[in-house]
Write a structure and sequence with these properties.
Mean pLDDT: 84
Strand order of the largest sheet: 1-2
Largest sheet: 2 strands, antiparallel
Low-confidence stretches: none
Strand content: under 5%
Structural class: mainly alpha
Shape: globular
Distance between the termini: 36 Å
Helix content: over 70%
Radius of gyration: 18 Å
């Protein structure tokens, strides 16, 4: 296992212990300070400035899977920044991955007309598309971190936010009206993606790649 994947697994373990039990409380009101939340991650060296980009992406992916809002707080990420941020892209991709899993789990146990929703072709097709888009976003984040190619870095965030939104929308659809209630995790996860998506600078994929290509040529 690579050092990057090991860092991601370490972050996931800390997040399960330190973040998961309190997600619903944090959704209602933010902690008085995020310093206590960040401390175990910093103590494990997961927030070091000299952390390799590949490890930083894996950490962000793991945190995004647990909760997008606390992930951005732990990583000190401002979605409104105009600078491309691979960690933000990775956190969004991680959130999208968790939303796909959340939606599929609900579809497998929700019985309609005598069979689980997951057995209906329409639902299976929707989740196949969402999962493929999320997997592509994760792969792009990892490739951008490993190669630091300007085009990959520029494309990572637009691709990731689109993937996270597709996953959030699909998961909410399969939950129906229940998805808007606090009883289900998808409600919090969907709101987190919507909030981050709304705060991002309005940059689509084509313009981001064109800008990066121009910078690469001029450089």
């Amino acid at each position: 296992m690579s050092d990057a994947r090991a860092a991601g697994e370490l972050a996931a373990g800390i997040a399960r212990r330190e973040i998961s039990p309190y997600l619903r409380a944090w959704d209602a009101s933010a902690p008085d300070t995020w310093d206590e939340v960040r401390r175990p991650f910093a103590g494990a060296g997961l927030l070091d400035e000299d952390l390799p980009p590949e490890a930083g992406v894996e950490v962000a992916l793991s945190l995004g899977r647990v909760g997008l809002r606390p992930a951005l707080a732990v990583l000190s990420i401002d979605p409104a920044s105009s600078q491309p941020d691979l960690k933000l892209a990775a956190a969004l991709a991680g959130a999208g991955d968790a939303l796909v899993e959340c939606g599929i789990a609900y579809a497998q146990q929700r019985v309609v007309f005598g069979r689980p929703l997951s057995r209906f072709p329409v639902q299976r097709n929707l989740f196949a598309q969402a999962a493929a888009q999320v997997d592509a976003a994760i792969a792009l984040c990892r490739r951008a971190a490993e190669g630091a190619d300007a085009l990959d870095v520029a494309a990572a965030l637009p691709v990731a936010v689109d993937a996270a939104w597709r996953a959030a929308d699909t998961a909410l659809q399969v939950h129906g009206g229940y998805g808007y209630t606090d009883e289900y995790d998808v409600s919090r996860m969907w709101r987190e993606v919507v909030a981050v998506r709304a705060s991002l600078p309005r940059t689509d994929l084509d313009s981001a790649v064109t800008s990066a290509a121009g910078s690469a040529v001029s450089g």
